[in-house]
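Why does residue order matter? Because the sequence determines the fold. Keep that principle in mind as you read this record.
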Amino acid sequence: MAKKGTALGALGALLDQSLVQIAEASADARAYDRQTIHKVSDVWDNNTFPLFHAATALTSTGRERRARAALAWMADLGPARRSWMIEQASATGHPLEQILPPLVVDPLYTRDYRGRVMPPFMPLSAEAALELGTDYDLAATEVHTLLLERAGTRLTGSLVLVAPRRYDSGLQAEEPAELHLSLKDVTDIHFDSDDRMGVVLEHGAEEGIVIGLGACGRLRAASGTVHPDDPAWHLSAAGRAADRRTPPREERTRRASKRRRRHPEGAALVAATILHSAMLEIRMVSYSHLADQIPVRLLARALAGAGTDILAAGARRGNRREQAFHDLINVWIENTGPALTPWLAGRLRYLADSTQLPDSSRAWIEEITGPETAHPYLATEPVTDLPSEAELRLAKYTAAHARHGSAQVSSTILNLALPPSPQDAPSRPWRLSALKIDDVSRFRLRADAFDGPHGLRTAGETNTVESLIIDGDALNVGGSKAGP
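Structure:
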């Protein structure tokens, strides 16, 4: 086990703590935190192989040097990632601040490859609201997407607004501008899809952010950010002002490119690929309509303690290291249980067929997996019947629109926490169910729809729900085939 205060120990502890966070965020659907699950699993997309690269260096000095480089690479994504790393490492007794290089704060405005200034992610303040009102006709702005979600216990939200420009965009902007708002600590929401034209942005010291939606709708939140997704933003009043104070692209200091790391070899490569694949599967919860299909809790439980175990295996030499990683993978296989074993076996067989491995690793894979070559899709069992009570975790409405020249119907995605069925053990955790309703004729939502379990009424089959009502009218979704 790596010592506390070392870069290698901190790197392994971050993986262990990540798996703890993912397991806690998925333990029960009533406290399901899809945002945390996605954020934490996403860390290991670009950092799993650097972890193994550090763990398998030949000397302790080499392992420490590589771990420092891996941590610096991980923290280089931005201040939010760096803060998360320091907080999580500290929770395991590994101080990180003296190990990481000094924080480099990126400028507010940057330029794209053509040298055009790019819009930033701005705090949704009174100044930002005034700036947006100058460049876009908010009275003619239309709600394209509304999403409200319980992330753990916090109610969060996001909006995508289609906004007509007030400035001359010339011939350079073929697509309409979109304003992307991200909101924290939402306290109130009243929205009706029949009343989504016109937006008012206000910000006060006491009431926080207040957004008027249509003639009668509103959304209140403690804080938020806004980002104009506008290919012509550099021509707006705000863009022209930013252009005057942003250095030319070629004059900015460029960070040194990262040297390409070698991938681990043999059984270490097999273990790294399995861990990486599992994190990518977990990250699929970012697609809210798939959230109930990803066995997050089972994967996190199977890999628990992986950081510590990888460091221990990597510290061995030669055949002992190869055997240690074989043993670790065997533990993962045993921990997965019958539900995940076929998927894991499929990943192993794919590696044996597509990757250069030592004969010992190839023979070991063939021995534990057998001749079957299928690689099944990893998914949990679908919900066959909806109960009469449920807890709303996520509600997303998307208006009808054109995409790449093709008409798209309006739709709603819902994530519900469902109680154990009468046939389940009373101690079974609530589980998640994701529903999608297409061609939505009406969508109404109030904040109290998220306040605990409510009565649930649906029409249509489970997989083709035509309408859904929660708590009288706190949430009312009607498809085109549903009655009034």
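The CA atoms of residues 167 and 236 lie 6 Å apart.
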